[in-house]
């Protein structure tokens, strides 16, 4: 053992790195959480400024589907944010399984929408939704600030699973973006919410999984 | 004996604050740890490069260590990440084979580190994939030689290496 130690002690790389050492602020989960919270607050203020929040719905005037959909998306967003933030400081033993269960839970929403469409006499008429695309695009736009915050955080850190990190960033930002934009949407039917408010999350997952890893590799 | 988890974590926290003496001690210990960590999964001629690569990664990403969490699982995750990356880059270098290398045995005191090891990652991929990765990327056999030894076709060897490496990169943190 001592011979091993003697052999490594004069490594010039160590001397050089020690000479270059500068103090750094270490990554802490709570700092990332504050950053993402600020991004979400900015997003909600932006939605309120541009579209105006649906205060009647927020004060109990909305259907149960409105609360259930936004609640499930919020849980999914929180689970994915938590995993994405933790991935900046990696460790063997992290499984990041939480968001998978939350995704399965949120998948109930489009399923409920399809069941409603099948069981409805005039199901196709329910698909004729002039506000659907607006909510889809709005949900994606509302994801931008959170996605930016998470990518910034991960680039500061050392994610060792860039594909999974990208997926979590995509899901987290679009789930929270859809909730933020959903606070301005007065349409509270199961088909509209189950399809058009969940669709941005599906798009976010695809974009995150395939477009973001190149930004996260190091 | 390599320093224990608490000592390494303490040295890392001091290093993040700019303590050069602690950092020198930490890097010396980390170098020893990495040499042991990689010795069975990397040809000796490539060992120094891989160890230095991980030490550079540690230096560049030292802010990514959270002082509230353990140090060795963090270092192991970075070492695994760089190792999978290294396997992707490795081309045939027959002279670098492990056959003649007499790797020293692990001591009992390192048993606790076994759960962080590289071997644990191979458990999570099919044997047909781990076998050809080992032969081609670690021992330095050619695709043809690996195909002859395993009975797989050459294209199957290539596909299994590709799929195996993809799977390994996905379980860097998860496999323990």
From TrEMBL, chain A:
Keywords for the protein's UniProt record, in alphabetical order: Membrane, Transmembrane, Transmembrane helix
Record bears the keyword Cell inner membrane: no
Entry annotated with the keyword Membrane: yes
Transmembrane stretches, start-end: 32-50, 62-89, 101-119, 131-153, 165-184, 190-212
UniProt xrefs under Pfam families: NrsF
Name the record gives this protein: DUF1109 family protein
Natural source organism: Pontixanthobacter aquaemixtae
UniProtKB/TrEMBL annotation, chain B:
Gene Ontology BP annotations: DNA-templated transcription initiation
GO molecular function ontology, one term from the record: sigma factor activity
Keywords: DNA-binding, Sigma factor, Transcription, Transcription regulation
Domain RNA polymerase sigma factor 70 region 4 type residues, every copy: 116-168
Record domain RNA polymerase sigma-70 region: where: 29-90
Keyword Thylakoid in annotation: no
UniProt KW DNA-binding keyword: yes
InterPro entries from the UniProt entry: RNA_pol_sigma-70-like, RNA_pol_sigma-70_dom, RNA_pol_sigma70_r2, RNA_pol_sigma70_r4_t2, RNA_pol_sigma_r2, RNA_pol_sigma_r3/r4-like, WH-like_DNA-bd_sf
Annotated family: Belongs to the sigma-70 factor family. ECF subfamily.
Protein's recorded name: Sigma-70 family RNA polymerase sigma factor
